[in-house]
Amino acid sequence: MDIFTYRGFPLCESEKLDNFNLPNYAPTSEEVKKVIEVEGSFTLHKFEVFKMDWDSYIKKANIGLGRQGRATVIATDIRAMGEPILSSQFGEEAMDDLFQRFKAVVLDHMEAEKCEHINLVISLTKKGTYTIQKNRRKMVEIEKVLHMNGGDGNTSYAINSLLQRTVASMVKPILEEGIEQLYITLLPECLKMADLGCSTGFNTLSVVSDVLEIIGTKSKMLNLPPPSLQAFLNDLPGNDFNTIFRSLPSFYTKLENEKGSSFGHCFITTVAGSFYVRLFPSNSLHFVHSSYVLMWLSMTSPPAVVDAYLKQFEKDFTMFLKCRAEELVPGGRMVLTILGSIKSDDPLSIWEVVGLKLNDMVLEGLIESEKLDNFNLPWFAPTSEEVKKVIEVEGSFTLHKCEVFKMDWDSYIKKANIGLERQGRAAKIATDLRAVGEPILSSQFGEEAMDDLFQRFKAVVLDHMEAEKCEHINLVISLTKKG
Ligand SMILES: C[S@@+](CC[C@H](N)C(=O)[O-])C[C@H]1O[C@@H](n2cnc3c(N)ncnc32)[C@H](O)[C@@H]1O
């Protein structure tokens, strides 16, 4: 018998009692099992039933209470649960009397009717979770080793990211257009943006100051107070966030000196985690930026054939769009720059040259062939058609622009005009690529193989580029969240 079934309500109006239904139902184990089976999403592992006398929890606590005391505790406990709903029907003034009466008889009643609490304990697993967990494990393995070289030393990404900086400056007009339209449409008091895959170095904070400048200038033109900017800098947990933290005070001082009070406040926060899952609350962002990041896949699965990579890219990019669609407000924008290719089985990616040199090292017995066979770089350079198809099928975003910028592998160095000859340019490309690839490559082939690998790479990279007419293909995509 359920403890609520015992009702001692003789003094209340009978109508009140007739109209009262306690919203409480104690199912049998068969009833519970049937619902689980019919619903179908869970596998039932354990179903246990624990019976206990109404007062056995008090006896077990061994607090030395006699029969009277135990009845008082039961009455107080039941009152703590039931008083709000009972008093809303029968009045607060009836409660003392009710629970006095209840206390006076509850243990006699329990003994006479052999009443017990019947506790059902159910242990369930969501079906299909094994695959998700297996995939998640693969993602976590990649997340652990995928990061750029940290710090600000000679091999760091911070000082070897001129290529990415050059591309960002080429993309700036598209960034400006996207941010301006977003600002005019939504006029946020505080624009909330995220830079996904921010890494560490000059590029990390320059996108923040670019956005601040664009909204500051636009608000001035519109005679509006400058909006503040909240920027979330995201990367994988292995990223060197400490270098970002250390650079913040001088960044804020520089902003203050250069832009002064004519620009809004800027608040910078870091967020560690993969953007292939949710990172932000729903409807919380106005703008998402990501540059030179989305060709890094969440995982790879052998066999390492183009088809498998394309499928993984489609899966990952779809998940990326779905997560951002949740996080962006309607009308929110994204500007994404991706290193792409002209055709999906393009053999001309710069990583191919690294692959060729790793192969040479295997042939010379410097690297075990098994290590190379087991290695799949989680990297895929999609064509603009492949990107557009995912955006269309996923359906949450309107595509405004998809532009393609091509550049020779060394043209960013020529453009920077730092007077480097052919030899120097090859060395710079090798150092820059090493800053990106060293953590993941050395986790597979060993730190000791890295000098040799990048020496070999440097020796052939420009010949290879010229012979094969290789170019970096930069895809720049500007999107608005529908709705
Ligand atoms: C080449 S860097 C680009 C950094 C910066 N956006 C720039 O333009 O200089 C790529 C960055 O993407 C990050 N990244 C790769 N996959 C990621 C993921 N799933 N979630 C978050 N960051 C990721 C890497 O750790 C790396 O720091």
UniProtKB/TrEMBL annotation:
Write down the InterPro entries for this protein, in alphabetical order. MeTrfase_7, MeTrfase_capping, SAM-dependent_MTases_sf
* Keywords for this protein: Magnesium, Metal-binding, Methyltransferase, Transferase
Instruction: Look up keyword Oxidoreductase and say if it applies.
Output: no
Gene3D superfamilies for this protein: Methyltransferase, alpha-helical capping domain (1.10.1200.270), Vaccinia Virus protein VP39 (3.40.50.150)
Pfam families under this entry?
Methyltransf_7 (PF03492)
- Which SUPFAM superfamilies does UniProt cross-reference here? S-adenosyl-L-methionine-dependent methyltransferases
> Which GO BP annotation is one of this protein's?
methylation
Task: Name the source's superkingdom.
Answer: Eukaryota
> One GO MF term, please?
metal ion binding
Alphabetical list of PANTHER family matching this protein: S-ADENOSYL-L-METHIONINE:CARBOXYL METHYLTRANSFERASE FAMILY PROTEIN
Q: What is this protein called?
A: Salicylate carboxymethyltransferase
Gene that this sequence comes from: SAMT_4
